[in-house]
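One example given next:
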Amino acid sequence: MSTEDTGPKINPGDIILWPMLKLDYETQPEKIAALLPPGINPSARSGVHITVYNFPVPDVPEYGVLVTVDADYQGEDGLYTLGYGIDQESAIFISRDMNGQPKYPCDVTYYRMLDGVHARCSHQGYTFLEYDGKLTETLPSRENHTETEWWIKVSRGVGMAPDNTYDFPPHVVRVHSSYATALEQKLEGRLTLRDSPWDPIKELLPMESEVSARLWTPTFLGREITLAGKLDAEAFGPFVDTIGGSRWPGENGAPPRRR
């Protein structure tokens, strides 16, 4: 099939309607299980899903990288969100405080040049992800679909409170989104994961399959963000201290020192 761009048209230089770079692969089930806080459960699948994007939030470009894994909560399949690395500070704190969306600062380069697609993500001086690929074909239109993400909203106790003391104990946030597809194009290329103590995707979510890569231009049909239930506050303790705000790998103590 042709790679001719038959998707929505934008004004030259506009930041609206950029396609998302979607990268998917399988990992070891036990690797995902080790990253899930008690109450969020492994699903029948063991997929890792990476999205690199540029989207206006609220009206300036937000370059970001999203990492999710297959998981379920109370029997509902979805995606547990490990982190949103983004390049603008203004959206980090309101997103985390209001909805528990685990955003953290990250340098993201993402662009398309003709049929070439390139992405690079760096955090705390470590480039942990690179992708270089080329468009090969435009994929057939698919039916509208929904996705469910699981976030965690929590606030630790003020001051020198004992461990596992919260002003707002950990709650699961359900993010239910509906999409149509304006355009989807297959990519062939190479995903490179690099060692990083801050974003240890390579170490903690190793690739156990070929990477599926595509450019996806969604049409947003709806999004609902709600509190879905509480997690065990005591058991959640090891997951409060985070690496770069991404809520993983779920170990107490200070983040690792930069080498």
In short: The chain is about 10% helix and 50% strand. The two ends are 47 Å apart (CA to CA). The chain has one domain: 20-239. Residues 90-99 form the longest helix (10 residues).
